C-alpha cells in the first residue's frame, strides 16, 4: 500500500514569526497544485503565527503546523518548558519527539520520550517519533537492536489504534546535517525492518497505516529516489527546509 507522500520540515532554531509567515505564504503559492501532505515544525514562538498564515492561505487541509519538542510534564514549576496543552492551544497538530539532537544535547532518554509520547496522545497531538542509530552502531551491525530498543521503550503503553496515528521518522544520526544521506537501498531495508517490527507488535493493518518518514540530508536531488522505495512514505527535512524554493522543490519532487 502506498500512502500519500508526507513532506515534513524541522526548522530547528531558525526563523522568527515574520519569517515563518512569509515562508508559508510563498510555500502555499508554490505548492498549490500539489496533493502532498506538508508538516512544518517552527520554533515555539512562531507556531501561532505559522498557524495563522496557513489559515490565511486556506491551506489547513494540506499544511499542518507542529512543534519540535515539548515537556514530559503536564504543568508545574518547570522553568522554560512548554506543555502539550499549550501547544494544542497555539494550534499545533503534531510534535516531533526524540530527535537525535534532543537525545544528544539535552540528554533525553527513551523513558523521557515515552512519557512525551503518552502526553502528546492524551492531548490530541500527533507524535512524530524520531529513531536512529549512530555511525558506530550501523558499522558494527548493531543498528537493528538499537532501533528495536528505541521503538520498544518509546512506544511502551501505546495501543494499535494510537499507533496507527503515529508517525515514525527513521533518522540515522550519521546522516543528519552531514550531507551523507542513507542510500535509498539502506533506507528502504531499514524502513522494512521498522514496519515488520510494527507488524509483529501491533498487527498487519496497523503496520500498513503507519507513516514511516526518512530523515537525514534529504535534498531536492535525492528525494525522488528515496520516495520511490516501497516503505518510505515521506521525509523529514532539516537544512533543506529553510529555503522556500528548495523546500517547495522537495514537496513538488
Ligand atoms: C533533521 O534534523 O531532522 C534532519 C533530517 O536534518 P538534515 O535534513 O539537515 O539532515
Shape summary: globular
Please mark out the parts with pLDDT under 50 across 5 or more consecutive residues, or reply none. none
Q: What is the string of helix and strand elements?
A: EHEHEHEHHEHHHEHHEHEH
The value of Rg in angstroms is 17 Å
Bound ligands, each once: phosphoenolpyruvate
Taking strands numbered 1, 2, ... along the chain, how are they ordered across the largest sheet? 1-2-3-4-5-6-7-8
Distance from first to last alpha carbon: 20 Å
Class by helix and strand content? alpha/beta
Strand content: 15-25%
Give the overall average pLDDT: 96
Largest sheet: 8 strands, parallel, barrel
Give the total of beta strands.
Answer: 8
Helicity level: 40-55%
Count of discrete alpha- or pi-helical segments spanning 4 or more residues: 12
Amino acid at each position: 500500500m502506498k500512502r500519500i507522500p508526507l513532506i515534513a520540515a524541522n526548522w530547528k532554531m531558525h526563523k522568527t514569526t515574520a519569517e515563518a509567515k512569509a515562508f508559508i505564504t510563498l510555500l502555499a503559492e508554490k505548492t498549490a497544485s500539489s496533493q502532498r501532505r506538508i508538516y512544518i515544525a517552527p520554533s515555539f514562538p512562531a507556531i501561532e503565527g505559522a498557524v495563522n498564515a496557513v489559515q490565511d492561505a486556506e491551506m489547513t487541509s494540506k499544511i499542518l503546523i507542529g512543534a519540535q519538542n515539548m515537556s514530559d510534564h503536564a504543568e508545574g514549576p518547570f522553568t522554560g518548558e512548554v506543555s502539550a496543552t499549550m501547544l494544542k492551544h497555539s494550534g499545533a497538530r503534531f510534535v516531533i519527539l526524540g530527535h537525535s539532537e534532543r537525545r544528544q544535547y539535552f540528554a533525553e532518554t527513551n523513558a523521557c520520550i515515552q512519557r512525551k509520547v503518552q502526553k502528546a496522545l492524551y492531548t490530541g497531538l500527533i507524535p512524530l517519533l524520531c529513531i536512529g542509530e549512530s555511525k558506530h552502531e550501523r558499522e558494527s551491525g548493531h543498528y537493528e537492536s538499537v532501533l528495536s530498543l528505541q521503538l520498544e521503550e518509546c512506544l511502551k503503553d501505546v495501543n494499535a489504534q494510537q499507533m496507527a496515528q503515529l508517525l515514525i521518522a527513521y533518522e540515522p544520526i550519521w546522516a543528519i546535517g552531514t550531507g551523507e544521506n542513507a542510500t535509498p537501498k539502506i533506507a528502504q531495508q531499514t524502513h522494512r525492518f521498522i514496519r515488520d517490527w510494527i507488524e509483529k507488535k501491533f498487527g498487519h493493518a496497523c503496520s500498513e497505516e503507519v507513516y514511516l518518514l526518512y530523515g537525514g540530508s534529504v535534498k531536492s536531488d535525492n528525494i525522488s529516489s528515496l520516495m520511490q522505495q516501497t516503505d518510505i512514505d515521506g521525509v523529514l527535512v532539516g537544512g533543506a527546509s529553510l529555503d522556500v524554493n528548495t523546500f517547495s522543490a522537495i514537496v513538488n519532487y
